[in-house]
Please model this.
Amino acid sequence: MKDIIGAIIHAMKLKARHFFAVFLLGFVLLTATAGMKEALGLTNIVIKYRGWISITTLASFFLWVVSIYSWFSSYWNSRAIRKQALEFLGSLSQNEKWVITYCLYKNQSTIYSNILEPETIALEQKGILIQACGDSNPLARPFTFPNYIWKELQLRKVRFLPESLLKNPGFKHFIMEYDKKISVFSLDKIIKQNMQLY
Model:
């Protein structure tokens, strides 16, 4: 019984095209003319295992439909999540904008941040940042912008890095402080001190 259950679970991991191939093979075996089955030497096999072939064909068709539905469902959910994340870019808090401003200025899509940093947590919850693979420590870990978010930020770069901000002497100081403390210490104090730079 365990072997049967294991085989079913393993089969569920197959891709839609595999289910369709099994279904197509079974359908051909069941509907082929007697002459075709005779020519391929499959007549006895089809007669002997017709019941199993029918069950397998029907099950494969069902699993193929389920797989297709699951794929489309996942695809549309992914599109909805992306759309929502892009919409969030237009309603960020000032603190969240600072994180993006820093990354755009440095031209880096990945950043190390304190795991308890409220701005990082907020951006992650909105789908704008995701945790990335890489070295981490108990205090900080890498976060990155998904490719579609990073591309959109490049298009909106001037909104986060206006010429007036780049010429502001206080902005350079902010970047220096950010460089020194982003990996370990909270940036809340630094951000609050530079809120008036925009």
